[in-house]
User: Which sequence fits this backbone?
């Protein structure tokens, strides 16, 4: 068991190394010289050469790769060409918005999807099940940025309960910060919860017919005790798989919703950096995305082991 | 009488037809501490019968008649009341030990859960009781095994855990659906030993369903023979197996493999020709008529009534008890 965790952990580090290499190579072959972009069209050849030297661009690729990695390990992510500030600070600032937003969205999505999916499966074929199906069909069909716009229209413009966008920063207090993130989190969570609810329903339906559920009922457990104690714990593996995929998407793919709500998140940072050819920022942000996805996958693997003791024996 | 089943019938609803009768005209009695063996091929309705007893028939299937358990008709009880009977008064053991246990729960917890569901005891007390039950069903090294998961055990051990789960709630009646069918022959014998011992020690009534006459002969006081959803013969096990009165029972006995060969050297194992008729297309007369060696014209005219002979044995055959060769 411990060896298994250790092996997965080693795999995680290796994956990150391979990814950093891939990202570096892609950036290498990408057209556009960061120094030339920073200098603009007015740059003279000797200024450009000097800038390239000061940015370390005249070094061979291997040296630059190693410098990048060792810098990252020391927490030095380099300096953004366009913002003129350290990339580390830039990312940390954005991560302080994106990570809580993603966590809120996944918590909301799970809080909606799990009961909905379980109850729909337990009441298979009844009006409750059909109602749940209708809700999930609608939520899947509607894009999250559109839900965001509707939420702004309703809760900000009409009712004035929530800010229409922007982020006051955590300095403004936990309450104000959470309030600014709630609507975008709902917009992100609804479509995801619909998918998660469908997966949960299917998984629970599968387990409901298992013999051990009859054993639980024969003990005298009523329907709901058998459902929540015996069926649900055995139905969670596919649910956790989808949650892992969805969390990765929330970290990297929230750009549209971040734009709708004018949130200074990682997605917008990546988008802007790409538009401005701020290669250093792109490189670091993409590696960070990759790293988060790999870590989430690792956590999902660990969750499998916690959920299904049969997997623990296989090293 | 602890259990008295009267005129039990079980019907399944069909979307575009009349309900289909799965079990018809089954009655039997069981006294506390006695063992009833129910024999039948697949499709004889024996599993449905057990599910009706414990009130776990699927929603589309309905039982009528009465199941009197200590004077209370279980078929008249609501779901909440039935939950107090299930486990606590009537325990059940399932056919497939490989799938009957929750794979994500330690076996000790699965035993303790039932104890704590029906009685107010602490987790520690329930665990101590669970350990005792594991020892009683002869799980070696029970103190260590109590924290293992089902997948770490063999089929025979899992079936013992299944027995421990059911007995830990101290039911008055235990019903077992082919509890040894999925096991190796040597393990079968061990499980039957455990049944024998615990049932007589605890004074539990046992209903054991099996298609294996060897198992029935080994453990049951009374035997009930089912065929195509109804009873064919009933009586004390030894009498039924030694002097079967129904041609179907005789056929079942003849089809049992024996050392030395029952038929003559090198002979094939005798079988009952044909198959169990579909419940949707039962013949008008006796359900066994199309496979019976003693069939007469009268057999095909109307289904024979259930008759109890002077010695108390029941039979559904037009030829009557005297005809038995």
Assistant:
């Amino acid at each position: 068991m411990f060896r298994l965790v250790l092996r997965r952990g080693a795999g995680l580090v290796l994956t990150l190394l391979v990814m950093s290499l891939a990202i570096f190579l892609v950036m290498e072959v990408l057209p556009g010289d960061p120094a030339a972009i920073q200098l603009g069209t007015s740059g003279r050849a000797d200024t450009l050469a000097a800038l390239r030297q000061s940015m370390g661009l005249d070094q061979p690729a291997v040296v630059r790769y190693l410098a990048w990695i060792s810098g990252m390990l020391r927490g030095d992510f380099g300096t953004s060409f366009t913002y003129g500030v350290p990339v580390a600070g830039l990312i940390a600032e954005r991560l302080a918005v994106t990570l809580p937003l993603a966590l809120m969205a996944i918590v909301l999505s799970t809080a909606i999807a799990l009961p909905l999916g379980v109850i729909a499966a337990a009441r298979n074929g009844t009006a409750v099940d059909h109602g749940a199906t209708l809700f999930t069909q609608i939520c899947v069909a509607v894009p999250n940025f559109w839900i965001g716009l509707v939420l702004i229209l309703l809760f900000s413009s009409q009712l004035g309960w929530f800010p229409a966008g922007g982020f006051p920063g955590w300095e403004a207090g936990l309450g104000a910060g959470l309030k600014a993130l709630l609507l975008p989190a709902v917009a992100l969570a609804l479509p995801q919860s619909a998918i998660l609810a469908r997966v949960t329903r299917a998984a629970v339906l599968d387990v409901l017919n298992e013999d051990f559920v009859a054993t639980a009922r024969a003990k005298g457990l009523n329907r709901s005790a058998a459902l929540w104690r015996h069926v649900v714990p055995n139905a969670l593996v596919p649910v956790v798989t989808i949650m892992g995929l969805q969390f990765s998407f929330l970290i990297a793919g929230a750009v549209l919703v971040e734009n709708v709500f004018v949130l200074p998140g990682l997605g917008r940072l990546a988008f802007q950096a790409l538009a401005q050819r701020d290669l250093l920022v792109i490189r670091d942000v993409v590696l960070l995305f990759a790293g988060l996805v790999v870590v989430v996958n690792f956590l999902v693997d660990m969750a499998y082991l916690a959920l299904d003791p049969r997997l623990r024996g296989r090293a | 009488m602890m259990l008295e089943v009267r005129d039990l019938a079980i019907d399944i609803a069909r979307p575009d037809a009349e309900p289909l009768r799965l079990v018809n005209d089954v009655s039997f009695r069981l006294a506390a501490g006695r063992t009833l063996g129910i024999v039948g091929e697949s499709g004889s309705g024996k599993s449905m019968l057990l599910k009706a007893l414990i009130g776990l028939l699927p929603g589309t299937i309905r039982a009528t008649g009465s199941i009197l358990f200590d004077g209370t008709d279980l078929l008249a009880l609501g779901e909440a009341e039935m939950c107090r009977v299930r486990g606590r008064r009537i325990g059940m053991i399932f056919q497939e030990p490989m799938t009957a246990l929750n794979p994500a729960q330690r076996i000790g917890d699965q035993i303790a859960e039932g104890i704590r569901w029906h009685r107010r005891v602490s987790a520690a007390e329930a665990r101590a009781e669970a350990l005792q039950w594991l020892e009683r069903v002869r799980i070696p090294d029970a103190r260590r095994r109590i924290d293992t998961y089902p997948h770490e055990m063999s089929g025979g051990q899992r079936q013992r855990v299944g027995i421990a789960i059911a007995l830990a709630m101290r039911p008055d009646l235990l019903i077992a659906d082919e509890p040894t069918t999925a096991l190796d022959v040597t393990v079968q014998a061990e499980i039957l030993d455990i049944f024998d011992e615990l049932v007589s020690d605890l004074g539990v009534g046992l209903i054991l369903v099996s298609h294996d006459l060897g198992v029935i002969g080994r453990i049951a006081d009374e035997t009930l023979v089912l065929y195509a959803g109804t009873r064919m013969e009933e009586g004390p096990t030894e009498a039924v197996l030694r002097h079967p009165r129904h041609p179907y029972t005789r056929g079942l006995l003849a089809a049992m493999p024996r050392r030395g060969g029952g038929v003559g050297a090198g002979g094939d194992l005798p079988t009952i020709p044909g198959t169990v008729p579909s419940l949707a297309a039962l013949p008008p007369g006796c359900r066994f008529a199309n496979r019976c060696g003693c069939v007469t014209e009268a057999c095909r005219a109307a289904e024979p009534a259930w008759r109890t002979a002077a010695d108390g044995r029941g039979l559904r055959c037009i030829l009557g008890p005297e005809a038995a060769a």
The two ends of chain B are 34 Å apart (CA to CA).
